[in-house]
Design a protein that fits this description.
heterodimer, A: alpha+beta, Rossmann fold, OB fold (Dihydrolipoamide Acetyltransferase, E2P), 6-stranded mixed sheet, 5-stranded antiparallel sheet, B: mainly alpha, MetI-like fold, two-stranded antiparallel ribbon, 2 strands
Amino acid sequence: MSGLALSNVTKEFGAFTAVNNIDITVPHGTFVCLLGPSGCGKTTLLRMIAGLDLPTSGAIKLDGDDITRVPTHKRNLGMVFQSLALFPHLTVGENIAYPLRIRGVAKEEQKKRVDELLAMIHLSGYADRPVSKLSGGQRQRVAIARALSISPKLFLLDEPLSALDAKLREAMQVELRQLQQKLGITTIVVTHDQREAMTMADTVVVMSKGEIRQAASPIEIYRRPADTFVADFIGSTNLLDAEAKGGAVTVLGQPVSGISLGSAAKATLSVRPEDVHLTAPGNGALSGTVTFVRDLGGTIETFVDVAGRQIVAVSTPRARPDVTVGQPVGITLLPDVCVVLAK
Amino acid sequence: MRREPPQRLVDYAPIAFPAIMLTVFFVIPFATMIAVSFFQRQQGGFYIPAFQLANYERFLSLFFANVLGFSLMLAIVVAICCVLLALPFTYLLARMSRKAQVVWLVALLSVLSLSEVIIGFAWSTLFSRTAGITNLLVMMGVMSEAKALLPSFGAVLTGMVYQAFPYTVLVLYPAIVRLDPTLTEAARTLGASPLKAFFTVVVPALRNTITATLIMVFIFALGSYLLPQLLGRPQHWTLSVLITDQAVYQSNMPFAAAMAVFLVLVTLGLVALTAFVGRKGEAA
């Protein structure tokens, strides 16, 4: 199979299991984000793919070849580090040409390729500048160009945008995704930023404590989270306790209609804030009290207290709810937007 | 935080103490030595104040030129050997566990605390015919019979490299520890074998540190006067040996001072040249 395949990959540091029995397949040309809180094993997994760490057990295959024990420098990959790791003693052009120089590519060819790459990252004419004279965003682009200069089979990035400020980071996410689609290169990015993962990835792999919680397309993960961890980690959500007693379902102790928990007696409902509809109290809706209204201009968040639990509703200015703090309101739960998760 | 340059006299107060110490223990003795180098020696006595260039004239002979040349060559070879040995050593040391690093550094510091005399006699025993390392080689069957490895240039060089090695490691250590380890990892992901990564990334990134270390070890080695006497032949004696000889045994302070001043000037010249070449290489 063309692409990257990890099977039963485990990494132990002494008694601590950083990565536990992971299987992932990354088809050729796709963009995968490894997403999770710090310490979930995502960076260790990436380092094993790069060959900087050796798995305790399991196999890594690239285009059908087992590369588990192939040393890093023979894997022909491109990697961008969190610290960028640009070589301080080399200029921009020399940094980008480094992988070519190491492989003994002719000087003229090196120069041609460097010019191409500089044009690609919109830094033509910067070849002779020292890297220390570049801004954060420019360094970022140089690190990307350097990793891509040999047209690698595999493009790995470890928290590549974490050093940039919020605005630049958002812009770079789009740019990186467009670049990846143009080049059609198999790409794996490690990030803890769910917006970044949603923006760029074909497949998001959500990890926690060394294990995969869910691997699917961003919208699938958002709409159909596999468990409460994923639901809570991706975007914001309201997690509500639900109970089924003799055919009747109660949410936060109040009876609701139209929602089925399947065969489970107890479950957790995940409802995205934008799916929470405020109505008048009664009529089979959950009843609660408005405790706070956060008007951010673009969106309005309404905090509602239902039986001691806070539920957040998000609406646009057009659909501004006509509520004030202290007012009793009803919340209708539509069955098609509630995800039933095992407790 | 921006620091204002000192405005009033009081602002200079914090540097008063170091300035006084430096003046009393460095500037005054050095000035005295320069002055003495122009004084006139009294046969059988000490010296009387005068201004004459005789001491410097005496120095300008082929014999002293040879000794000076040998001294500088020896110090340069020692500096190069030390850096060549210490650079890979320190690089590997910096990647060891914290505990192992402490053990190694303590061991190196203890070598540094040994006096030149002890190092000299230890090596003269190790290089001797009766109790030296050649006996071990004979026992292992590598050599047919034990022989003395000293006095020789090799013995002098070994002793001096041994003495300067811990010093070299301690000078290199902070810079190497501070070097971002992801630089080497990045080089490896970009296709460089660990050895290639060391030579194309670590060594060039440490260029200034290496130059500074070469200069410091060079100066350190230049002052060595016991090891050449203990481990070498008279032709391996350095200028420092002759200065000691003139000052202590011949009681010719003015001539010893003149030689010392000359040595300082030549050293300063070489260091300036190295710094100049280094800066030029940077610009290119």
